């Protein structure tokens, strides 16, 4: 076993130092160990249409009419959505909208209330 951390890509324990980088001999990934530590501190950050950072439990307002598959009417602009949950993915807000139920929204179509 080496005294170096495992490869962040393939988790190989056979990493070695080359100048100021670490190298994985199995997948040939090279990385700076200080950058990996800084990247590990990053958390999920989601921003609304105005650039305000959203948090779990925030309330947001829909800024444009959003069509809903299978529903006869869209979610109207100005609809307030309470107690949102942030997720990874294309639709990064999970919420419940009165009259529609649980759904996912894109953060670019809401603003913080």
Continuous helix count: 1
Instruction: Note the overall shape.
Output: elongated
Oligomer: single chain
* Largest beta-sheet characterization: 3 strands, antiparallel
Order of helices and strands: EEEHEEEEEEEE
Q: Beta-sheet strand percentage?
A: 25-35%
SSE-based structural type: mainly beta
**Which whole number gives the mean pLDDT?**
88
Task: Round the Cα radius of gyration to an integer and report it.
Answer: 21 Å
Uncertain segments? none
Strand order of the largest sheet: 1-2-3
Which bin fits the share of residues in helices? under 10%
Distance between the termini: 53 Å
Q: How many strand elements?
A: 11
Fold and architecture overview:
- This protein is mainly beta.
- A hairpin with a 2-residue loop joins strand 1 (16-18) and strand 2.
- The longest helix has 8 residues, at 33-40.
- The chain has one helix at 33-40; strands spanning 16-18, 21-23, 30-31, 46-47, 53-54, 60-62, 80-81, 85-86, 93-97, 101-105, 110-112.
- It has one helix and eleven strands, in the order E-E-E-H-E-E-E-E-E-E-E-E.
- The relative contact order is 0.17.
- The strands form four sheets. It has a three-stranded antiparallel β-sheet. It has a three-stranded antiparallel β-sheet with strand order 7-6-11, with no helix packed on it.
- The protein is elongated.
- The mean pLDDT is 88.
């Amino acid at each position: 076993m080496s005294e170096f951390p495992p490869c962040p890509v393939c988790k190989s324990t056979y990493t070695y130092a080359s100048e100021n980088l670490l190298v994985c001999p199995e997948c040939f990934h090279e990385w700076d160990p200080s950058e990996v530590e800084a990247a590990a501190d990053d958390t999920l950050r989601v921003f609304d249409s105005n650039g305000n950072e959203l948090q779990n439990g925030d309330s947001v307002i829909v800024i444009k009419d959003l069509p809903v598959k299978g529903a006869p009417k869209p979610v109207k602009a100005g609809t307030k959505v309470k107690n949102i949950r942030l997720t990874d993915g294309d639709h990064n807000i999970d919420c419940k909208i009165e009259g529609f139920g649980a759904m996912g929204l894109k953060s670019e179509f809401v603003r913080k209330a």
